[in-house]
Amino acid sequence: MDKKQIISLLETQLAAGTITRDDLSALASGEAMPVVSTVSAPYTTSTPTAAVPQKQEGNHSKYVVYALYAIGAVTALAGITILIAQNWEQIGFLGRVLVTAGIAFVSYAIALLLGKHEHRVIAQVLFAISAGLAPLGVYVFLEEMRVDFTLETQMLIAGMLAVIYGAALLVSKRPLLVLVTTAFATWLYWAYVFQILTNAASFEEEMLKWASIVSGVAYICIGYGYRALSTIEDSVDKRAVVGFLYTLGTLAVLGGASMLGGVFDLAFIGLLFVTFYASVFLRSRGMLGLSAIFLIVHLIKLTGLYFVGSLGWPIALIGIGFLVIGVGYGTYYLNRHFIAAK
Amino acid sequence: MKLKYLPLIIGIGLPLLCVALLSAVIYIPQQSLKPAHDFVYSHKSEYSSTATYSYSVVNGKVTRDVRDGYNTDASLSPDAETGGLYLYDVETDTARPLLWAEAKTLSFEPNNLSSDGYGVDYGSRSSGILELFGDGDRNNVYVTKGNVRRALPGVTDNQYRYSYGFTFIGWVQ
Fold this sequence. Notes:
The complex is a heterodimer of chains A (342) and B (173). Chain A has twelve helices and no strands. Chain A is mainly α.
């Protein structure tokens, strides 16, 4: 073993509690080390099992705290919503703005100030509260000013909020802000699409399907780009955000593509194989699961359209049953050997 | 440009490209929506207390029949001026009230399409997804041709917000 390996081993055993700093001090000073451990393999680098329960207990406490944060945020939002609903007329314009835009602004500011890594969960909870209340606050303000909530107004609001929360993302680099900014950008995108389609005399539905496919591809690309470019460490919340974007993107792509019909029924099968491959490449269970569901539904649809007349429903159902079993096993196999194994 | 930025560029650029293409497909043809003929329409306010008529074009001329109104006055002369008729000027995009006496002198196209292929459509704006992105109950009048339509500003103000009586009568020849 070289010097680095020995130092690494000592650090591991110190962290595990197998040896203590006093033992090292005694060793360095040449004194006889007190025998406090029955470990007989001096070069083992495996963590003694006695240390694992303590680490697991630490993780459990952390998740309990996170759960409490989430419950607290949901409770606060529910309380604010009920308060507004019950006292809407009594609190007046200033009160309405304060309990919506005011709280949104304060929670946004506090979340920005909580810059340390250990505050990341509470900061993201505050950002979530702020993002949830900000549109409501703007709506309250507009209603007071007697401004209609038209598509043009929505585009302006969504764009403004996307910029505000995008700026917070650049400053604080919290993973949740990727979702928040994407959500407001999505609002802006769809408001503009509907604004354009009010001037379309026909083909509205086709355009909506393609717009959905485009937004789905964008979500997947944003998720992949964020994972590749983000400078923050890989954490549970970062992986959750990326996974959510992959899943939502897959839903938008497959949902839009499945409704195109016609010659796209055949191309859809090819698209499904692309998403299966992409789920392995991106290690996304959500993408894999949705691909399997859409494949099953599409097989049932094609069987119903093209084979029921010739084979009859009983044989078609037998075929569908075996296909579903095959797809289910294939999904399990892919997940176990290519996604979970990495 | 580094390849690692490519997914993010695609993720942001693709929706922008999509809306740019949609805009081009809709707004460019829309600029050429300029009918050559004026048209006449009737408007019955829900709260109108005057007798109302149903209008139709027969042999190129407008005719009217009395129909159930809120306060139908049977003693009205067949040529009574009761209002509710408007002439839309496509050059200035404005509508002006049209007297029945004047409307009787005009000649109209035999069907709902003008000789240059335009139609008039009346309906609500898109209600969006789960009513989230739409414009609620605002109704507009559109001139249409092919797959494109354009809202007519002369009849899209709030005077028709709660009305249900816009009826296209005909294109003036």
